[in-house]
Amino acid sequence: MPEKIINCAIYTRKSTEEGLEQDFNSLDNQYEFCTNYLKSLNDPALHLLPTRYDDGGYSGGSLNRPALQRLLSDIQCGLVNRVIIYKIDRLTREIRDFFKLLDVFEKYNVEFVSVKENQYYNTTTAIGRLMVNMFLVFAQFERENAGDRIRDKIATSKAKGMWMGGCPPYGYDIGDRCLVINETEAQNVRFIYQTFCNTHSLADTTDALNSGGIRTKHYTTRQGRTFGGHRFSVKTVQRILQNPLYKGMVVHRDKQYPGQHAAIVDAAQFDMVQAVFAAHKEKRETRRPKTPSSGGERETAALTSLIFCGCCDSAMTPSYCCKGDIRYHYYRCYRRASKLEDKCPINQIRTGEIDRVVMEQVLAILKSRDFFVQYISHHHEFDVSTAFALFNNLDDVWNSLFETEKRRILRELLAKVTIFKDKIVLDVKKAGLAGVFAELSQNNRLAKVEYKENETFQISIAYRATRLANGAKIIVPATAKEESRFNGSLRLARQIAKGFAWRKMMEAGLSLQELTAATKTNERDIRFAMRLSMIDPAIVESVLSGKSPEFLTYAFMKKHPIPLLWSDQRKLYGFEERKQ
User: Which residue segment(s) compose the domain that 373 sits in?
Assistant: First the structure.
């Protein structure tokens, strides 16, 4: 097996141009010295490249030398395996540059030899590698010291309110080493704050920006790279609304310092926006389910690869978000998540809720004699009374199945689940229906019912997706009465959640007048909501979980004075009788 060829490149340098016009100058002398060294090794694997890398008239204090840059480029292209120089100072006179070059050599597996200091700078020998590694230890120490100095300088500069560079934030440009207001963008920033104060909605604020043709900051770096000029995302708007820089502060770690730049919004409006965010956070904590899947548990999405968005005609894929150690799982519209659609009416829906509704409908399909008679019974002769005996015991059979079995049956039965704004459409496989009936009834003749693979029928389920205080819920209203009762209990749950949030804000020092201005709600409604949050905790839990009596609605609570004692409240609202 032939030996691997080692391509050797000789680099030479002279600081001045004096004497370069001679027939045999200093560069030629260095080159010949290195050539003789290669010949003395008498190694047939060594191959001297014909290209010469000569820098005549260039200082060793900089790496910006044409021949050296050509050498580094050839190294990156894999053309050079070993670099040979006359002495180390011909390569560089700066220790930092030396270690930069060593990093390049190590990255591309290039050996390095200094002929005159062969014992100390020769990575082809053990002693040479030892010496280089010793130098690298000192280089690492210097780099870490430099990092500490830079971090200390940044902390000191930010404490003085100075801008420390980078892409300027939206609303500002970079002036004389400081931020100056860009009036056009500053008007848009004020519009963002005002719109959010009016709507209390990040989504609505973002839509207002994008529909008005406003785009993110377009910025060009010194190197000519361009950034921005895109549509605003909700996250971008949220960062603008929560950045203290816009009220004239500079943030370093967890501390804020008065900045040297001018503020775009006043501190009062900024604090009002933060109060709205605090109220939103309180609502989320109030409606957080008690036993969601934690980071250590994996919630299986039963409808993966089956569920589609009917509005975008796109697949819905499993996703999740984290709040602390808790995961909340969703099906998300793929086109919306990939930003192929600006706004999807569905966007995302909780996996547990939609899985529950579809699973309940699957059981309803299996319990339906109509489906059985319509799609199966006419194919084979069988004892109707024996077949219908399955329906009488189906609840017991179903409840005895493990969750994994139920999910398997669901996937065997359904070809597709399509989500619209007001309905869920199930595509049920006829062959799957016959197979499930055969399995549950242990009737082998039913298993022989033949259908085409894609032969299906559809079932449409009316539903209403909304948000109660304990999380997103999917309700399948059966009657107008149930729908009316649902609206009343939903409003009551929302008011209780608001009451909890507003109480906490006032306990934190916010006055009633400031809370009224921040929430755009009159004092009477704020007082009543806080009164609702102080009723018997058992009643509150019942309302938030959707298990309260049918008559207990927001209108009922407004009409009847709330008793002071919890025991009287339980009697009035029918909880004493339920307890018995």
Answer: 307-468
Cβ-contact 116, 146 below 8 angstroms: no
The token duo for 547 is: 């298990």
Calpha distance 228→355 (Å, rounded): 40
Spatial neighbors of 249 by CB under 8 A, at least 6 apart, are: 256, 257, 258, 259
pLDDT digits (tens, 9 = 90+) for 361-415: 888 777 766 666 666 555 544 445 555 566 666 777 777 888 888 888 888 888 8
| pTM for the predicted model, two decimal places | 0.40
Residue 456 and residue 314 share a domain: yes
Q: Are 215 and 230 in contact (CB under 8 A)?
A: yes
**Cα atoms in the 13 Å half-sphere on the side-chain side of 370:** 3
Dihedral over alpha carbons 271, 272, 276, 282 (to 10 degrees): 50
**Element (H or E) spanning 577, and its range?**
helix 575-579
Average pLDDT over residues 269-274: 92
| Residue 560 is assigned to a structural domain of this protein | yes
| Angle at the Cα of 543 from the Cα atoms of 538 and 549, rounded to 5 degrees | 95
Domain assignment of residue 146, yes or no? no
95 lies in the same domain as 128: yes
pLDDT tens digits, 188-205 = 999 999 999 998 889 889
Q: What is the pLDDT of residue 507?
A: 80
Q: Note whether 464 and 485 are same-domain residues.
A: no
* Closest-CA residue to 245 (of 126, 128, 162, 340): 162
3-state secondary structure at position 219: strand
Q: Is the pLDDT of residue 579 over 70?
A: no
Count of domains forming the chain: 4
| 483 and 455 in a common domain | no
DSSP-assigned states of every residue in 484-549: HHHHHHHHHHHHHHHHHHHHHHHHTT--HHHHHHHHT--HHHHHHHHHHTTS-HHHHHHHHTT-S-
Give me the helix-helix angle, 403-413 and 430-441, nearest 10°. Answer: 140
Separation CA 282–CA 504 (nearest Å): 8
Read off the pLDDT of residues 284-338 as tens digits, 9 standing for 90 and up.
666 554 444 443 334 568 888 889 988 888 888 888 887 766 777 888 887 766 6
